[in-house]
């Protein structure tokens, strides 16, 4: 049974290699941290907030909303600076701790007398121009009002150069690395008018995180940089001014004592008495609450004197943020909990968090932890897969994913930590999926290999079993108890001399095909065809517990097949008038230990069996003609399948063996062994053997006659017994006396 194999890794090695490659790729991808991974991670954190939004706690933060109604009543935005100055005066009188504008006053007031005079045509009467010149400038009026109020102005970050920079109002100290070397520089800024900046108490950036490219605002910068200077954010300045603090303190990893990734990062910003944890880029994660109407006061209400009494308690001691919810002013933002809110509300929620101390943090070491977790868990799965199997690994993967997600959500709820459980879980799944796919591929390839290699030698049932458990096909060799069959065509040489080569091949195929089917039907493995002979064995590569019995039944079936083929003249010998009218075969069976396995070179081998038991089986088959039996078995085979019908042939000397062996003619199956005919034949045959052994020629002759009468078809088998009786001394004397 020869076939070729290519050298390749073991199935386990290939699966482990594939899983390892996927794990390395996934770990490398996590280290690279492309934008789509960031998006998936942040979406996970968004869902955490949706499942558990921040619990609202009252805080001294109020929004003065320039809403649609206020614009309708007061006029199109931007309002005259005198109107804005009036609002500042009212808020200051009501006791606002800080007034922060989430707007930028970048251009002069178009309604200011100065701007109107500049836009007049040359033919305008001089008296009109002089009258306008005498009127106070709106921006100057606004600047004067700001000078006496705790006002924080905003500036916007832009990608278009303006040639202007914001003024610095807050002193910024730092511990560790200079924040300028850490913060990503913004290209340009759009600040308010210089006159306004000079009188303001604070100036801060109103822009949100540049990393929130998908439109969802998750972070807000506490500090920013243009590559030369560090500037505070709007809420940072509002909180500083409200406390009367003169500056900020920025700490980085080298000064905080935190474990870091080796790259300098900002860890927190101290604003007066408030210490705020930040991202590496100095941003604060926002933990949202659902938007609330009690945060807002309409701007138009402050211009109605009769409402001041009820508004004053809402403003006193509050950090007031002035912004807009009007859709036309395009400052509507999406939050992590899926709401659309005015941009000023984002600043308000950030201030509420700082004041209440309810922070979300993603430490600098989180990314390294997630990468390490991805690799370690993946490595454990690769090691566990061959130990606990695919199902066990899948269950373990589910448990690990549940622990990762549950643990991450627990730390979010209890500690405000943002740790990504999705990527490690997804990586484990992909490692498992890759290993499973490769295992399936190799298993299917192994099945094809087994089917191609053994379909010609094993029954379909055995091939299917071998496909399911290919590990039973031991490469190399192993000692197994086996039953070996040799079959040979009697008188093959005279037959072959009467046939052409083509006819001879047809004859062999006609005979050997059904005989092979009979072997495979009983679970046998065909080792090889040797000219007109068949060598087969049982109990390999698939274990066959009753291998001796199956070999015996297969051999009996082979004899019946030959009789049927002869009766039908399947070979055409009778039709062609050949000398050989029928075909006879001889079969020898032996059971015993033998070495079975793949034998040959690395590239081409035979799955075969060798050993003394094989040699004995071959010698037994060679003895069939001398014994006069079509089917002979060894005593070991008979002992392993005692339910079949046997007749002892006696002790025979086998070629190459120094000691005689006892052989048995197998003449029928279990049913025949239980029949009265066989019971009678067995008794007379035993009597024959006993008489011969005792040297009683007369009794032996009588038993022989009785046996021949009971089984006329065994005349060839009993012919040698007649010769043995004739050789007995008493038989010779009786023969002389009779003559």
TrEMBL record:
Q: What keyword terms does UniProt attach to this protein?
A: Lyase, Membrane, Transmembrane, Transmembrane helix
* Record EC number: 4.6.1.1
Tell me which domain of life the UniProt entry assigns to the organism this sequence originates from.
Answer: Bacteria
Q: Enumerate the GO terms in the molecular function aspect.
A: adenylate cyclase activity
Pfam families listed in its UniProt record: CHASE2, Guanylate_cyc
Q: Does the keyword Transmembrane helix apply?
A: yes
Q: Where are the transmembrane segments?
A: 365-387, 394-413, 425-442
Q: A Gene Ontology biological process annotation?
A: intracellular signal transduction
The name under which this protein is listed is: Putative transmembrane sensor domain protein
Organism annotation: Roseibium alexandrii (strain DSM 17067 / NCIMB 14079 / DFL-11)
Organism lineage reads as: Bacteria, Pseudomonadati, Pseudomonadota, Alphaproteobacteria, Hyphomicrobiales
